[in-house]
Amino acid sequence: MTKRIAILISGRGSNMVALADAIQNGTIPNAEIAVVLSDQPDAKGLVVAQQRGIKTLAIPRLGRKREEHDREIVSVLRDERVDLICLAGYMRVLSPYFVDAFKDRILNIHPSLLPLFPGLDAQRQALEHGATESGCTVHYVDNTLDGGPIIAQRTVPVLPGDTVESLSARILEQEHILYPEAVASILARLEDK
Ligand code: GAR
């Protein structure tokens, strides 16, 4: 059966596009994007998704408590009968309510080699720590900050003279390869169950 994926974004949405491309070209087989959802109504990625004919939805936080906001999102995701949720530059920490509602069904991509440099500004953290390599990680989301079980990683060198921008761009290129591969392998495992 075709698996339904929800992608949660807060901004540009380039990882969302990489996933959409991978579904289109068969790298991620037997899958469709049920909805692209953002907490930021002006997220560029929402426009990009709409242009591709993908259903989009903005659910802003509007000063509500984290769980209240998440309850609305979870309700939409249930209505959409999603099998897997991919966080792709979604810059909010999920409440335990959300994590428990989709246990082992939420993935995130993070721009560092976790467990190194969790949280915000991972690329800056890598530079400030004088790391000689960094990369990206796809992991399951649990109730820790970027601490859930690791699914896959790709490494890039940190080069002399690197800035946050140059390192971020090098990592992003690998994110766009890693995320589709990881999603395909997770969906294949769901298929076997
Ligand atoms: C990506 O680099 C992603 O790894 C990072 O935000 C960027 C989103 O770019 N996510 C985090 O830092 C999560 N803590 P995109 O909107 O173009 O996919």
What does this structure look like?
This protein is of the alpha/beta class and 193 residues long. Helices cover 39% and strands 22% of the residues. It contains 6 helices and 7 strands; from the N terminus they run E-H-E-H-E-H-E-H-E-H-E-E-H. The protein has a 7-stranded mixed β-sheet with strand order 3-2-1-4-5-6-7. Helix 2 links the parallel strand 2 and strand 3. Helix 1 crosses helix 6. The longest helix has 29 residues. The relative contact order is 0.17. It binds glycinamide ribonucleotide (GAR). Glycinamide ribonucleotide (GAR) binds next to helix 1, strand 5 and helix 6.
Supply database-style keywords.
193 residues; alpha/beta; seven-stranded mixed beta sheet; 22% strand; globular; binds glycinamide ribonucleotide
Fold blueprint:
Elements: E1 3-9, H1 14-24, E2 31-38, H2 44-51, E3 56-58, H3 66-79, E4 84-87, H4 96-101, E5 106-110, H5 122-128, E6 133-140, E7 150-157, H6 164-192
Parallel strand pairs: 1-2, 1-4, 2-3, 4-5
Antiparallel strand pairs: 5-6, 6-7
The protein binds glycinamide ribonucleotide.
Glycinamide ribonucleotide binds at residues 9, 11-15, 45, 88-89, 109-111, 122, 172, 175.
